[in-house]
Amino acid sequence: MPHRRRDVPSLATKGAVHVTMRFVDDISNLRTSRCMRALWFAFAKGKERDGFRLCHYAVQRNHIHLICEVDDREALMRGMKGLSVRVARQLNKALGRSGRVIADRYHVRVLESLRQLRAAIAYVINNRRRHLYEHGGWTVRRDFVDPFSSGWYFDGFADGPRDRLPGRLANVEAPVTAAQAWPLQRGWRHHGLVAVDEIPARRASDRRRRRAMP
């Protein structure tokens, strides 16, 4: 079956985007060490290419959130095509399978203001905390950093910089790269750093939880 054309918004100049990649149904859980090793390798090799930079990510069971900085629309399309190919190849190899890995469409949202940037960064970095809260109100320890995210490489926590990686990551190529433009690099901080225990979009999560109550 041919892939349908992605809905990619217009980007005239350098900017930041929030990309959501969804995976086929028979890849049931990306949050395993085997899948994460494959994704880490794919991210590390595809994180920076021809005006495309992968700056933050969060891996959930059946989808991935990315925040990328791109020079223009073409750079976004080239970068996502290259990253998607690497992700598919590495996951298929790790899982001993073949065929399609990523569902037909990925969703792209252009982050047009510093406030939107800050909200998107918090949403991605603390995405696991949000999922746990929304699906049952579960909590984790206050200083929890999701190992299936780029949180260990994030220097925008209000609780102080994370200047020391876990030993197992110290000599491993980073899966993300630094933003080059001021908005994604520093500008978003004008709306506040991210608390390590922040629950992104908590009001929306509360509304969904109330609707789900019997």
Question: Low-confidence parts lasting 5 or more residues at pLDDT below 50?
Answer: 1-5, 204-214
How would a crystallographer describe the biggest sheet?
5 strands, antiparallel
CATH topology, anyone? Alpha-Beta Plaits
Q: What is the residue-averaged pLDDT?
A: 86
Widest sheet: strand ordering: 2-3-4-1-5
The share of residues in helices is 25-40%
Which architecture per CATH? Answer: 2-Layer Sandwich
- Terminal CA distance reads 41 Å
Class from helix and strand fractions: alpha+beta
SSE sequence, one letter per element: EHEEEHEHHHH
How much of the sequence is in beta strands?
Answer: 15-25%
Number of strands: 5
CATH superfamily: Transposase IS200-like
Description:
This protein has 214 residues and is α+β, with helices and mostly antiparallel strands. It has a single domain (15-207), classed as 2-Layer Sandwich (Alpha-Beta Plaits), CATH 3.30.70. 34% of the residues lie in helices and 17% in strands. The protein contains six helices and five strands, in the order E-H-E-E-E-H-E-H-H-H-H. It has helices spanning 33-46, 73-95, 114-125, 127-134, 182-185, 202-212; strands spanning 15-23, 48-49, 52-59, 63-70, 102-111. Strands 2-3-4-1-5 form a five-stranded antiparallel beta sheet, with helices on both faces. The protein is globular and about 45 Å long. It starts with 14 loop residues before the first strand and ends with a helix. Mean pLDDT is 86; it is low at 1-5 and 204-214.
